[in-house]
Amino acid sequence: MTVLVSGANGFLGTAFLRQLGRPVMALLRGSDHQQRARTLTRRTGVPVTAVPGDVRAELWGLRDDLGQVRGRVSAIVNLAGVVNWAAPWSLLSAVNVEGAHNAASLAASLDVPLLHVSSLYAAYDFADEVPQTLLPEQADLTKYERSKIQGEWAVADVCGEHGVPAWIARVGALSGDLDQSPRFRDGSLHVPFTRLVATGSWRVFPYAAKARLDIGPRDVVAAGLVKLLDARPSGVQVRHVCLGAKAPLIESIVREAAASQRGQDVVPGPIRVPARWLQRASLLADRGGQGPRSAALIGLRYFASGSVFETSGLDRDISLQSLVRTLGLPHRTEPPPISSYYGEWPA
Ligand SMILES: NC(=O)c1ccc[n+]([C@@H]2O[C@H](COP(=O)([O-])OP(=O)(O)OC[C@H]3O[C@@H](n4cnc5c(N)ncnc54)[C@H](OP(=O)(O)O)[C@@H]3O)[C@@H](O)[C@H]2O)c1
């Protein structure tokens, strides 16, 4: 038996396959799906069999291949997603909502459990401590956040109706791998946080006092997802795969990053602003354009919330220094001790 995975060649998907360490069937788009499966096998070290499809299609487009898949698959993992915050609603909704709905219908049709990957941002700023339960869709979410929470409800509705056991795993922001391997790239050049701070979009780094960033190395998060997959849920259950109360303050991440870089001014100076300014600017940008500048502005809200996410945590202790090392910023191997530069930083 194997696992059917969508989004297997994405940023989190490749890390998931490496942590899983066993053969998978990957739903891959495009006529070159066989070639993509071979590349994925090379990139992850696990044997990958391709099935052509698209999560936007009913039963992921597998209706004709259902006979082949049935009986060979013990679970479905839905990692496909549109993660570009500035993408149009039509695309976000088709992949993140309809794709999730189709994942649940496929799991029901194959009579196997589902692991659906969502985001902590589906519950953005919901409460001081966000519970691991399905939550109502709040006002003032961005398009991306709305698509992720609606995806969760689509999974819950279909799985609830058909009695399919399902994990809805809300994942925090991702950095590169904590354990670097000479065999594989560590992904740190693609970390969204780093792209936000290092693209030169901002001269200063605005953040709100007490704002936290729940960010975890993708290999550690992927290991958490594998652990969920190996434990059968009873009914539909929500789990936060993240740092929770150990999530660092934005301020400490930026200071650590600035202090540890090798003389390059990649990290802009931090400046404290009211949370509502960042949230307002973000929502305005969310109604605007679709380019990288809009995405950078939308991302401002992730430096504004002090919410802590209830969780049993990641299975590794991760120091702030090691976390910063996974961000892909230039860094010194021996940054100065925190106490020496914190004292000098303007309050
Ligand atoms: N990255 C983060 O910081 C982060 C944080 C929290 C949660 N998440 C969640 O984690 C999941 C994976 O994110 P990621 O960072 O790995 O994204 P990613 O690197 O952009 O990968 C997205 C994957 O989804 C696939 N995909 C997109 N549309 C598809 C469709 N219509 N049919 C089939 N496959 C499709 C892509 O396939 P192609 O290669 O064919 O394009 C790709 O493999 C998403 O649900 C996201 O919301 C990510």
Give structural notes:
The chain has 347 residues and is of the alpha/beta class. Helices cover 37% and strands 16% of the residues. It has twelve helices and 13 strands. A seven-stranded parallel beta sheet has the order 3-2-1-4-5-7-11, with helices on both faces. A two-stranded parallel sheet has the order 6-13. Helix 2 links the parallel strand 2 and strand 3. The longest helix is centred in the N-terminal third of the chain and has 22 residues. The radius of gyration is 20 Å and the shape is globular. It starts with a strand and ends in a 5-residue tail after the last helix. The C terminus is likely disordered. The site of NADP nicotinamide-adenine-dinucleotide phosphate has 24 residues, from helix 1, strand 5 and strand 8.
Q: Give the N-to-C terminal Cα separation.
A: 57 Å
Query: Could you give the order of strands across the largest sheet?
Result: 3-2-1-4-5-7-11
Tell me the series of helices and strands, N- to C-terminal. Answer: EHEHEHEHEEHEEHEEHEHEHHEHH
Q: Helix count?
A: 12
- Approximate strand percentage: 15-25%
What does the largest sheet look like?
7 strands, parallel
Let me know the number of strands.
Answer: 13
Shape: globular
Give unreliable regions as ranges: 338-347
Let me know the average pLDDT: 91
Helix content range? 25-40%
Q: Which cofactor or ligand species appear?
A: NADP nicotinamide-adenine-dinucleotide phosphate
Radius of gyration: 20 Å
Question: Which class do the helix and strand fractions yield?
Answer: alpha/beta
